[in-house]
Amino acid sequence: MIRLDWLRALGTALAVALLVYAGLGLYGHLAQSLAAPLALVSLDGDLLASDAASRAAEVLHRPASDAKGHAEENKAAQDALVTALKVSPIRPALWLALGALKARSGEPATPALKVSYLTGSVPVEVAFSRVQTVTSTSAATDEEIRLFATSDIRAALASRSRFEAPLVAAYVQATPAGKSLMLEATQATDPAFNATLRRY
User: Fold this and answer.
1) Which of 9, 24, 82, 133 is the most buried (most CB within 10 A)?
2) What is the pLDDT of residue 70?
3) Which residue, among 163, 143, 141, 138, has the nearest Cα to 153 in the 3D structure?
4) pLDDT of residue 164
5) Per-position DSSP letters for 120-134, written without gaps between them
């Protein structure tokens, strides 16, 4: 009898735990589904920035199934970023995302990338992403951006064990101006890495 009561109690506890787990999952799904519509009418800079960053990441990291769909997603993500930046403009990572989306759609990326540099410091991961975007676009021909990008390259090289291979990959994919920028930035600060780049 005691054993049967114990099993019933255990079953009840498991059922309650499963209901709580399912409820939390449903709440998370609903909250995520409502975040984008709420962001459209919000004046909360953090909410807008979070929604815009999420949209940009989807476009930049998940290719659309067709060119028209990709262009529409890119435009929607750019619109979300512009809305967020109007409310809260001191967000260098969002300016970088805007520049990357513009480059992806064939629009000039240089103005957005320049503002990304002028609005504050960024973590080294964002600095590396900026190097990738700058060196693979016409922004690498802008003298002011070249100067700014040099500091990003140095920041990535300061964490060489993490970023050496990604920097080489960025160099391989860079435009001629982007390759020139990376060679100039590493010539004095890291001659060994400069020699590595020149082999590609």
Assistant:
1) 133
2) 86
3) 163
4) 94
5) ----HHHHHHHHHHH
Rounded average pLDDT per 10-residue block, the chain, 200 residues: 56 50 46 47 76 93 73 95 96 97 95 96 96 97 97 94 95 98 95 95
Which one-letter amino acid corresponds to residue 69?
Answer: G
SS3 of residue 66 by DSSP: coil
User: Which residues are CB-neighbours of 138 under 8 A, at least 6 positions away?
Assistant: 108, 109, 110, 175, 177
Q: What is the pLDDT of residue 9?
A: 55
The pLDDT value recorded for residue 188 is: 87
Task: Kindly report the backbone phi and psi dihedral angles of residue 63, in degrees, each rounded to the nearest multiple of 5, phi listed first.
Answer: -65, 140
Going through the chain in order, the beta strands assigned E by DSSP cover: none
Q: Angle CA(14)–CA(16)–CA(17) in degrees, nearest 5?
A: 65
Tracing tokens 């930035």 back to the chain, one arrives at 185
List Cα–Cα distances, 13 to 9, 18, 109, in angstroms. 6, 9, 56
Rounded to 5 degrees, φ, ψ at 109 are -100, -15
